[in-house]
Amino acid sequence: MIKYSDGEGIVRISGLHKDNEIINIKLPSVAIGVFSRYLYQDIIEKFQSVNVGYFSCANSHSDVYIIKYKDTEITFFMASVSAPRIADNIEQLKVNGVKTFIIFGNCGVLDKNIPDCSIIIPTKGYREEGTSYHYIKESETIDMNKKYINEFIDILNEKHFDYTTGYTWTTDAPYRETREKINYFKNKGCVCVEMEGTAIAAVCQRRNLDYFTFYYAGDNLDSVAWEERSISGLTKFEVKQEVIYLALELAIRILNK
User: Fold this and answer.
1) Is 6 a member of any domain?
2) Sign of the dihedral defined by the CA atoms of residues 156, 161, 166, 171, in that order
3) CATH code at 164?
4) Cα distance between residue 221 and residue 223, in whole Å
5) Distance set, CA 123 to CA 22, 63, 76, 107, 213 (Å)
6) pLDDT tens-place string over residues 7-30
7) Any bridge partners for residue 101, and if so which?
8) pTM of structure
9) Residue ranges of the alpha helices (H) in 29-178?
């Protein structure tokens, strides 16, 4: 059992660091985070980018950038995999002025009819990770992506991307996605599985932040045997490279509102 407390945590959130010191910087209010190391590096090289600092996690060093797209500055970061680590990313970036998060990456599909590398928009998440229960009270599900979904679908249509909307299953244990659990969550209406979605929603709800999170379809769990499809980072990389423009266009529309 996870005990929920409505009080604030004792540990101070420091924000970004540079040269082993806390930095005082106000970042662009909209941040894009990507879970793929290959896409992260591709974006840094492709767009005008400035390294402004790094997350203060003791066991990792992940740099944060300001990138420029259509003459507009956007915060950009390598999103950390797993619910507790993405929560830490969001908490630290909030200290430095980020108010809206757009976070995307790969997911496993629970419906074999969802095309490989197509876009999935979660509208509700089943909470099978631990982090969200420290941010909001216990419940089986959390609503997701109430804000910006119409704008995002407009972008998908403009850029001719296939997409699916549905529920997601967020888990802490990717190697415990058993057939029994896959069938259970599929019967609940889940179309995909990943490790961060419900935590992103809960942290942003607790901290009064806006967010939009989406996925591009990867491995298929809706089969007799696991199908890897495009789960490898460089498989169909030319398709994945186009996904970043969905996030960038949404960021521009948010900033121009």
Assistant:
1) no
2) negative
3) 3.40.50.1580
4) 6
5) 36, 30, 24, 15, 10
6) 999 988 889 999 889 999 999 999
7) 31, 211
8) 0.96
9) 37-46, 83-95, 149-158
